[in-house]
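quick one, 180 residues, struct below
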Amino acid sequence: MHAQLFQTQWGWGAVLCTPKGLKEVFLPKPFKAEMFQELPKAVAVLENESHPAVLQLIEYFSGKRFQFNLEFDLDGFTQFRKNVYEKTIQIPYGRTRSYSELAKAVGLPQGARAVARALSQNPIPIVIPCHRVIQKDGKLGGFSGGVTWKSALLDFERRHLENGGRNSETSTEPAECGAS
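---
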């Protein structure tokens, strides 16, 4: 397993990859040193941008990518979590679904809490867009990177869609997002 760092207008992020695929995404932090502190100690860090996940995340954060085409390493995950993640990936860019809608989609109509629990353990945010899943009353609910991140990502995607898919100079995250 190795890590690769990348820089966007949102800060410094990182991915963990194995030969099977993307294992984990670390949301950007304002400073590179903060990102190094987030990474597991025994992981080799490569600072080039050659992995497809890095390139696609940079495109996402610059408003040029709406969906990802990546292989994942989900070894050790239950089939239920894999199913939840598969259905979450199908939520369109800039749109939301409720936890209960997602529960129905995975065949567990009364399983909104189980879906929320699975999403709270999502190691691949953005790519598996759990930020697009909200409560049925319209409230944001939780997010592994914090509610400020979730709100900023949803606003970014909505503004980008409203702008006709063009990158906007105002499509940057609030300063407090990087600190989450």
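The longest strand covers residues 21-29.
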